[in-house]
Amino acid sequence: MEMIEKLSLQSIFTIAFGELDLSPLTYYGVIIIAITFMICFFLASIPLAQNIKDRSDK
Q1: Model pTM greater than 0.90?
Q2: Average pLDDT rounded to a whole number, residues 3-8
Q3: Is residue 49 part of a domain?
């Protein structure tokens, strides 16, 4: 019975990600960093597309 309580308590505070057991802070931190990277990449590509378009118009 003690083992079951320990497993359920551990599953509350960790998130299994393949073979890794991550804390919720780490798991959601990775997700937030990935989303931030995608937003920054998208925003950085807008001026690049404008420069390519302006250069092809000349």
Answers
A1: no
A2: 51
A3: yes
